Request: fold
Amino acid sequence: MLLAVADHVWYDGDDGAEVRVAMTVLALRPANARLVRVDPVERVRGEVAVIEEIRVPRLNADLTAHANVAGAADTPSLTPDLCIRAIKRGGGGFVLVPTRRGRCSSQIPRHREVIHPYRNGKDLTSRPRDVYVIDLGLATEDEAREYPILFDRLRDRVYPERVANRGHRVRATGGGFWNHVANCARHCTGFRAIS
Reply:
């Protein structure tokens, strides 16, 4: 659809009957479309007055220019990779306030590689808390030891909490300190973090 006027007054001369019509102009693959609203009462030089003219990429079948809700497809069938839980912080010990982050980074600058701004749903919908998270990704325990201050923090604050809550599971996975969903890491490769 190239042009649509949903409620246009059409008349036959000054003494003829007025009829309301919907006018549409169709074209094969138009570059854009126009939706025109007119005032059915007011006239400008004998013609109806244009109230609004909107240019949009396409018009819907019901002569609207908003999202085509009526033409939306059914929800796709769910697959394991369509929606994933992403990364779940595995304990309060992963979160750092700015002063603690500064101390860790100034003592061992390499720690900056794995400390990132932390935002959860509440941070996005209200005022952010200005906190950071230790993110060791898929690092093994030996690789995590390369960040000694952070490793000690996780060992002292996160590991005991995990043992108390899920001791059998932590021991079964070799004592890892963090939860990370491998699918999320694979799918997020190349994306820039929001900070």
Remarks:
- Residues 92-188 form one domain.
- The first helix runs from residue 98 to 107.
- The mean pLDDT is 74.
